[in-house]
Design a protein that fits this description.
The complex is a heterodimer of chains A (179) and B (471). Chain A is mostly helical. Chain A contains 10 helices and no strands. Helix content of chain A is 73%, strand content 0%. Chain A is globular and about 50 Å long. The N terminus of chain A is likely disordered. Chain B is α+β, with helices and mostly antiparallel strands. The chains are: A mainly alpha (179), B alpha+beta (471). Chains A and B meet through helix 1, helix 3, helix 5, helix 7 and helix 8 of A and helix 1, helix 2, helix 3, helix 4 and helix 8 of B.
Amino acid sequence: MSFEKQKTDYMPVELVIGQHRGLLHYIIRPIVGDENLVDDCFSAVTEIIVKNYDKYDSSRGTLAAWLTKVARNGALSFVQNKKYAMTAGDRQDAARMEEVADRKTPEDHLIQKENLAELKEALKSLDKLEAEILLRKYYYMQETRQIGAELGLSERAVEGRLYRIKKKMMKKMGGAIHD
Amino acid sequence: MTDFNEIKLEELLKETLPETSLAENLGVINPLGAAVNRVIAGMVMTTITLNFLGLNYILPTVGIMLIYLGMRTLRSGNLYFRLGWLTALGKLMLTTLNLVLQVTPYVSLMDGWGLWAGQAVHILFLLFLGLGIQKAGLDAGMTNPKMPTWPVILWQAVLIVLALTGINSWAVLIFMIWAWVRMVKHIYHCAADLKQAGYVVPVSTVWFSAKPLLLAYLAILLCVMTGASLLVHYTPLDAEKLVLAEAIGVKEETAEIRSELISKGFPESVLDRILDEDLADLGSVTDVDVLQSGDNTSNTERMEGYSVSVLTEDGRVKTFVWFEYVDGKHAGLVDSVKIQYDEDQVTTDIKGRLLYEKKGETWSADVKFEEKSRTYLWFGDITEDVWSISKYSFPFMADSPRGYFTWWTEEKDGSPAYWSFNNTVFNCLRTPLVLPYVELPENADRLILFGGFGSSWGQDKFQIYATAQFQ
């Protein structure tokens, strides 16, 4: 029986995690990078899923899409925390570092808003394959090797396409990113 | 774009892509999505048969290549996927071999064993693909995943049975259409299952991207097939340069013959282009009968011709069949002429002379004829057809291709001939790639890929049917 037939709105979270284990590992692995940390990250991500499972709204998207988003954000947080933990001496320092890193001025927010608007406009000029390559590289943090293997492209072809995509986007965005 | 800006762009992308709707728009990415889509598209393409514009060759070939390219990515997934990849490669090789043979006289070499081998390989591929999907499902934690390609294998088996038994009816056709639609739907469900389980299936890196490899394969295949077609069809001429002024209207002994022929009605426009040496054996002329193309069977606007029969004093008839291409250029791969005579008369000394211009010079070539005959029953009577054929290729980019064929006819009992008959058929293969192989001139009525000789599709001959009667 396929997953599509098995899942229901009232599926226990343990079953959901079990059935989507492969997907979760797939999302986590490239972000974490270090194979030794994948299991730890997976544990952290499943904690987040369990905590937030009741917030999943099936009308806003599929379960797989929600899990993908949670896993991605969870893995990024895990990596960030690991980085701060390695730099800082203790948890307190790590928390302080995170706070500082996240602190943005009103001006920062305005610039980010401008850049986001230009970025959205530039994204419209990409075709489906270009958008997928971009997403895999900068959202899912996949290596060009993995992107190429999964899309049936050589590594060099992926690098070439990424170069052209960025060039296209830079042109659309007027050649400069607001700083 | 500066490196600084590129770095800034990358940072921006990492930071703000989650705030765009790109991820939602593209949906959950799937490691096997692209590969599975190729395999599915290939499988559907190989089941469709459309007999126009060469699609009966193009669709299955592209389909098989897509299947191979999809399986290439999956080959490391599990043992069954690897076997599936190998069988896909086998299918590709068999298809390639068959296509190349299709343009040669060995077109039927793969009949029988080749068809069976192809079917066997295809069924093996479906089996391994299904087992591979089933294994992937098990590895992904699915409970009791089915072997999803059984319906497709069954479909293939039904096709084989229908082909072997020759069962053919409207009911069967309707059933097969319904079954095909069901099968395609099932293939898509298999794809969905595989994509679902794909997160646990390792994929293989590739040296060459799929699209360029597909295009390169098709381009190479086209070149090989065209080369093979040229090789088997092109029949070059053994031509010599000719100075027309020294070959026509020069010899004194033929001047009188020319005057006599004109006085009897031989078209001057044709006579002015026949070499002296081809008139030299005409003795005294008694009568001339002329047939111009347009007066009788003529299937193409690209050629013009005459059939001129000359009755000589000794009671024999010499026939001249003149032809020329009206458009001045002729890019035909190979031409042939088939001349049929009356079996109750004796026909001898059949000759042919071809003329063309190239780089401002005139060239002339003789052509050899091969005699053939066929005996059959015609309304209870045993009848024999006799004819002569010749095959030749004008050089590429030759201007003003033209020529004439001549032969002598006499009555079997030696009495003076009072009539003469010929059915002269010109056939031409116009394109470099002739698919499937056509043996000129016998099978020239078959449709030729991308159009044949004549002014419309399927028209591939120019014919002069002449019955000359003398007073």
